[in-house]
Amino acid sequence: MQEADKAFIVPKVKSPEYVTxxxxxxxxNGISLLVSLNDLELPIxxxxxxxxxxxxxxxxxxxxxxxxxxxxKWRTARFLETCGLQTxxxxxxxxxxxxxxxxxxxxxxxxxxxxxxxASISVEKxxxxxxxxxxxxxxxxxxxxxxxxxISASDQARSVMVQECLSGQEYGLDVVNDLEGGTAAVFxxxxxxxxxxxxxxxxxxxxxxxxxxxxxxxxxxKHIGNLDCDVFLTEQGPRVxxxxxxxxxxxxxxxxxGANIPAALIAWAKGEAPKPEWxxxxxxxxxxxxxRLVEKQHHYEAGESVxx
Length: 308
Prior knowledge:
Blueprint: H1 18-29, E1 33-34, H2 42-45, H3 49-54, E2 58-59, H4 64-71, H5 73-82, E3 90-91, H6 94-103, E4 110-114, E5 124-126, H7 129-143, H8 149-152, E6 160-164, E7 169-177, E8 183-195, E9 198-205, H9 208-221, E10 226-234, E11 237-244, H10 251-256, H11 261-269, E12 286-288
Parallel strand pairs: 1-2
Antiparallel strand pairs: 3-6, 4-5, 4-6, 7-8, 7-10, 8-9, 9-12, 10-11
Helix pairs in contact: 4-5
């Protein structure tokens, strides 16, 4: 809100008025493109796409089916398998995990995480069976106290997953599709540091194997706009971990290296072809995020306490 030309406060995303208020803002301000950066907005905006299109606003939001595939990490794993891509072994019950451990298909350490999750909330690494059982139960309990409680309640008994802990170098992909779901570009970044589930430092790289993974996902998923994708490059090859059909925390690295996906989206919305340089990046560019202090702008009225 500090940086935007105009800023508006809207109801919480779960409010019944949320879509109506955003529609009104788009209509009043003549908004041509609506872009979301939040996982929790996507399942709400996706079914309302036609309402925005009726007022002349193009929502850069994928179909409800695509949103569900990406948000439900169990469905993500199944989708990747249908694409012929490798992902990590994923289980929804402790009995299945124990059987996999006994057969040798799975070994510690393991990752316990919400089936529907965002921003690495309640993601835990466990080293033995005792930790596994305690963490699995605790994650179920914690979910009921977070904003993920409602979506987790749709399959409460299977709302927590256990996955193998992948080893190898982690990469982030930006898989760029046009407004019709056609894949236009794939950009690869090697992650050098993470913070709170987001990439904090990265270097842009050229890796044909990972680029092929991105093109395969883009063609199969047919998402709209940018797809933020997490991949581990292991000894067995690329293993895809997550799909996020939105601009992710790693997109700024792509942008600083030369791409301009917002400009490309605007061009597509106008029925024009984007400039070729907007869909290219320079490789070997390293960037880091930084923090800064921003003063809250507030004008005190006469007689108002500074604590009000």
